[in-house]
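HOLO CASE FILE
Compound: zinc ion
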Amino acid sequence: MNALFAAWNQRMAALARSCGSRRQRLGMLLALSISLLPLSPARSQPAPPEGATRSAGVAPEAASVKMTVQNLGGGVYFVQGESAMGSAANQNFISNAAFVVADGGVLVVDALGSPPLAQRLLQEIRRITPLPLRYAVVTHYHADHIYGLQVFRAAGARVVAHVAAREYIGSDVARQRLAASREELFPWVDEHTEVVEPDLWLGADGQEEMTLKIGRSEFLLRHVGPSHTREDLVVYMPQTGLLFAGDLVFRDRIPFVGQADSGRWIAALDRLIALQPRTVLPGHGPVSQDPAPDLRLTRDYLDHLRRSMGEAARNLEPFEEAYAHTDWSRFEALPLFRAVNRMNAYNTYLLMENEAR
Ligand SMILES: [Zn+2]
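Model generated. Tokens follow.
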């Protein structure tokens, strides 16, 4: 296990050294374009009812959406969001979260997409254990995984994330995203919803790995970005072979590529495949008890995007033409294909144009 991570360390250090500044600028541009895209449809939401907001400092009502806690054994529990785009109708329950009840406390992985969803998850935790919340680990700072953080912090958890998230947290992109979410997702995300800064940063000391301990349980946090985001981290439990993979792994839907560095995302997935986890908890979609093929599906999708769009970019073929004749048959039956595949392909086309220069 440690040897694997040591090899991983070397590989990731090499990748970090090869990171070019033009590529980083492109990433920022794409991040901005993605964050601005959903702004316009939000205006069509009906006006919120008078007096529907909470007063500041009051714990939110719990979300009423169906949330089934799956007991995976060994004190590990998982909730699975819908395979859908976030909306007020689904209360933004579109991502997964998990918690581990260890001897002496609870560790939560990801915080769901609104304070009411987190409140609901907290109620579920309290049905199972009175033990204190010790940590809320954030796999990455995308809206659907972080807007519940304030609930877990108020309940006593220390928020943990990778230091690469710092740039996003203080950015205009984060502010614009939150402003858009407050409209699109009202009343689940409202003026009391905040982007919470971590209490504990992985990577602040230059180390890309950190172990959190609760009683006899160990949680190995490992930075695997930049890939889906710059700050992606995974949580591995060596004693059980359980891997919380965040949005490095999507199941039962088309991945959201956004401003991802898909080349490094593929490399990170290869490291996860080599780790041979027994069970994988993805950021979206069901738990995988057969991780290799499930990890490979996300990998193959990214690879297909890069090959098809890379060839078009190298041949100076216009995007629309390339998109039209690309064979999408392997992926088009997956949920959200129509909603996100074209945007994923376009972002990859721009990325490949830039990589070809
Ligand atoms: Zn996500």
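CASE NOTES: The first helix runs from residue 2 to 17. Confidence is low (pLDDT under 50) at residues 7-56.
CLOSED: yes
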